[in-house]
Amino acid sequence: MGLITISAQAADATALTGSGSTFVKPVMDKWAETYGNSVDTSVKVNYAGGGSGVGQKNVLDGTVDFGGSDGPMSDAQLAGAKSKILHLPVVAGAVVIIYNVPGVSTLKLDGPTIANIFLGKITKWNDAAIAGQNPGVKLPDTDISSVHRSDGSGTTFIFTDYLAKVSGEWKDKVGTKTSVEWPGGVGQQGSAGVTAQVKKTEGGIGYVELIYALSNKISFADVKNADGMYITASLDGVSKALATATIPEDFRFSYVNAPGPESYPISGVTWLLVPQMSKDAAKGQKLVAFLKWVFQDPKAQAMAKDLNYAPIPDVVVKRVMTAIDTIK
Questions:
Q1: Whether the Cβ atoms of residue 66 and residue 28 lie closer than 8 Å to each other
Q2: How far is CA 45 from the centre of its chain?
Q3: CB distance 191 to 70 below 8 Å
Q4: How far is Cα 61 from Cα 247, in angstroms, rounded to an integer?
Q5: In sequence order, which ranges of 119-268 are alpha helices (DSSP H)?
Q6: Mean per-residue pLDDT for 12-26?
Q7: Whole-prediction pTM value?
Q8: Can you tell me whether residue 172 is helix, strand or coil?
Q9: DSSP state letter for 313
Q10: 3-class SS string, 62-128
């Protein structure tokens, strides 16, 4: 009888599906598990990941209830949507420059140097541009092997947005998108793929979210910010950068290379992409309840902090709640 009851509960559960950003997936999985097990057992949240490009596409196609993206949707994309798409900033985080150079445990890099590495203009680890920023560090005459995301990625958007801010050549030749034409290097699927490739490649360098670097115990560089300070990625550095941002009414904004002596320069947010008009009234109500829990419940926010995401400021959360209330 117990098995029949459990099966009936599972059959009656409302499924809320999402896809997109791999950056936010660790905390989305934690939120989904906690919400379905202890907050509302009649709801099962499934978040598939797949990259920000996938999340944007699936929201536009109407194949998911919400998406996750670390890059905002374009005006052209939004104009083609069947319903207005809300951009709800849910967490903030750092993109870090991971590297695999045996014997080098600390590394400092500025923006132009990072851009020139990924442009293919700096090809050796002992290049003067790197050595000049790292006095006393024994840099080998090893080839640099750059690794980038091969899929549509919000992490790529944040990274290329930063490079376009610090390098005119990058801005003109490559630009800022979730997927770009890379001047060189090796492409890998997802942040996990980039991390694995760098870990197994002597001389490798890539970009991933802070949580992936920490969980994989891989070295990452301190990055020079707009005030000329080399900053180690941290929640505090992301929050200091976010505090400088001007956030418009539709929440689509960027704050890379933010001012401030403690700001970490390669920082961004993840948006939950939610159609303002729900196709199913009952499911829409469940989704609204889940979103309000994510943004307002102290336990939900603590889970994000434990996984090395920086919180969205309270003043912005209040605006997000107003936007959630417009979902029909």
A1: no
A2: 20
A3: no
A4: 27
A5: 128-131, 154-166, 168-173, 190-200, 210-215, 235-242
A6: 90
A7: 0.88
A8: helix
A9: P
A10: CCCCEEEECCCCCHHHHHCCCCCEEEEEEEEEEEEEEEECCCCCCCEECHHHHHHHHCCCCCECCCH
- Asked if residue 290 lies in contact with residue 43, where contact means CB atoms within 8 angstroms, the answer is yes
In the structure, what pLDDT confidence band is assigned to residue 320 with cuts at 50, 70 and 90?
very high
Torsion of CA 42, 320, 234, 134, to 10 degrees: 130
2 pLDDT band, cuts 50/70/90, is very low
CB–CB of 35/293 below 8 Å? yes
**pLDDT for 239:** 95
Which residues have C-beta within 8 Å of that of residue 79, sequence separation ≥ 6?
Answer: none
Which strands form 186-188's sheet, in the order they lie side by side?
43-50, 14-20, 66-69, 267-275, 85-100, 204-209, 145-149, 186-188
Cα–Cα distance, 195 to 204 (Å, whole number): 10
Tokens 């609204």 belong to residue: 288
DSSP string, 3-47: HHHHHHHHHHPEEEEEEE-SSSHHHHHHHHHHIIIII-TTEEEEE
The pLDDT tens digits for 224-238 are 999 999 999 999 999
**In Å, what is the CA distance from 280 to each residue of 68, 85, 151, 200, 219?**
20, 16, 31, 47, 46
As beta bridge partners, residue 18 has 47, 66
Q: How many C-beta neighbours within 10 Å does residue 317 have?
A: 17
Give the CA distances from residue 43 to residues 165, 191, 211, in Å, rounded to whole numbers and listed in that order.
Answer: 43, 29, 27
